[in-house]
Design brief:
about 270 residues; alpha/beta; 7-stranded mixed β-sheet; globular
């Protein structure tokens, strides 16, 4: 039995686990980035990895946090970003699941995640995972109490290749039980010349593989979608601005289409 006392994971001078920008924004959109950050707590000693390894996709969603902020600024939308590397704990996985704290990420062994005690796991949940999701829940609660319409957008990025398999999509639109917003957004994206759009590609949302959309989107019956942008397209500022500009146009159009359909059915 692991009855060791709780441990402190984050030092007082280390980053907060979550950053909120445009707090109080008037937009119906809440944009979240589960894998925006790549910081690792000092006490984890880089999990036994080289710095170059932690800079890869296994550590964070390259470009996703920057795109979120640019969209948020354009739309006046609240943006909630998680600041710590998913190698410490994945904030889009159920705590305790096999993929919450990975010992092997893609083809890379993570030595500092092997053989963790219950106390060590609980510290990562308590100090990184829970503050991030508590922040999202508080914002959603506040909006519900105020009677404000809300659309949850979860922003991610994906690698151009995965285990030598080339991924042809420029962007993927992901969903699970409720495809309303996703299908509308897919239709709009496919009207953009030259874009290869993935419908639940290169991933799909499931209860087993995801946390944010099932818990915050589906359980609250909100319009929601997860968006995946290919990383080579948003690795620099020019690409980030290009894609943020596109979504700043299309997200409101998708929402307006759904609102019009809903009003017509009344």
């Amino acid at each position: 039995m692991d009855d060791a006392p709780p441990i402190n994971l984050l030092a007082a001078d280390e980053p907060q686990p979550v950053t909120v920008t445009n707090e109080g924004g008037s937009s119906p959109f809440i944009i979240v980035a589960d894998h925006a950050g790549k910081y690792l707590p000092r006490c984890l000693q880089m999990l036994g990895l080289q710095a170059t390894q932690c800079e890869r996709h296994i550590g964070w969603d390259i470009g996703a946090g920057a795109v979120c902020c640019l969209i948020g600024d354009a739309l006046g939308a609240v943006v909630i970003r998680q600041n710590y590397s998913r190698l410490a704990i994945d904030c889009n996985r159920m705590p305790g699941s096999e993929t919450s704290i990975v010992e092997l990420s893609e083809l890379t062994t993570v030595p500092g995640n092997i053989g963790l005690s219950k106390t060590q796991i609980e510290a990562r949940v308590r100090e990184i995972f829970q503050p991030y999701h508590d922040t999202i829940a508080r914002e959603l609660d506040r909006r519900r109490e105020a009677g404000r319409p809300t659309v949850l957008i979860a922003m991610h990025s994906f690698t151009p290749t995965f285990k030598s398999a080339v991924r042809p999509w420029h962007v993927g639109v992901l969903y699970n039980r409720d495809p309303r917003f996703a299908n509308t957004l897919i239709d709009l994206l496919r009207c953009e010349q030259g874009l290869v759009v993935g419908d639940n590609e290169p991933y799909s949302v499931t209860d087993e593989s995801d946390y944010t959309i099932p818990v915050h989107g589906e359980q609250r019956d909100l319009y929601h979608v997860a968006i995946e942008i290919r990383q080579d397209l948003i690795a620099d500022e020019a690409g980030q601005r290009r894609w943020a500009g596109l979504f700043a146009q299309l997200l409101p159009r998708a929402y307006q289409r759904l609102a019009t359909i809903h009003q017509a059915r009344k």
